[in-house]
Amino acid sequence: MKRALSLALLAAVIFVYAAPGVLAQGTPYDKYLTAADIEKATGLTGVKLVPREPRKGAGGHLNFANAKGDLVLLASFLSAADFNSYKNAPGMVKSQVQGLGDEAFIGPASDLPYMLVVRKGDKCLALSTFADSQKPGANRLTMDQLKAVAKVVIGRM
């Protein structure tokens, strides 16, 4: 059972990092989210957009780093079908989130969830943050900060 859950989580993570490369070709996503938006929503300073480099963890349509160059946010723009795939994958949903889009959830169902996935109409937004090596047991962005960023994006979708 534990191995099946691990494989499901691995498949979901691979999807998050691999799918955006196919979907992003020639489509601008910066109209949905900027470094300044992230700074305003999170209180961070020195946030910058960084290139897509899946082997370094920056596999989203939009990838943002802090002033030290550490990745803080990966944003992927997907479809409602992708949302349903995430939602139905074993071990992906830790809890539902009310008040964001048509439906939303936090995942994966682990001790340290790092994703916020939101569906609005036929679109899906997947926001992921990264573990903070300076603060064991914490992510670089909190779930409240991810929700604040999601509200900005959803308002533009």
General description of the model:
The radius of gyration is 14 Å and the shape is globular. Strands 1-2-3-7-6-5-4 form a seven-stranded antiparallel sheet, sandwiched between helices. The chain starts with a helix and ends with a helix. Mean pLDDT is 85; it is low at 1-27. It is of the alpha+beta class and 157 residues long. The protein has one domain (2-154). It is built from four helices and seven strands.
Largest sheet: 7 strands, antiparallel
Structural class: alpha+beta
Proportion of residues in helical segments: 25-40%
H/E topology pattern = HHEEEHEEEEH
Q: How many domains make up the 3D coordinates?
A: 1
Count of individual helical segments: 4
Which keywords apply here?
single chain; disordered N terminus; 157 residues; alpha+beta; globular; 4 helices; seven-stranded antiparallel beta sheet
Q: Secondary structure elements and their pairing?
A:
Layout: H1 2-23, H2 35-42, E1 48-50, E2 62-65, E3 71-79, H3 80-88, E4 95-97, E5 103-107, E6 115-120, E7 123-128, H4 143-154
Helix pairs in contact: 2-4
Structure summary:
This protein is of the alpha+beta class.
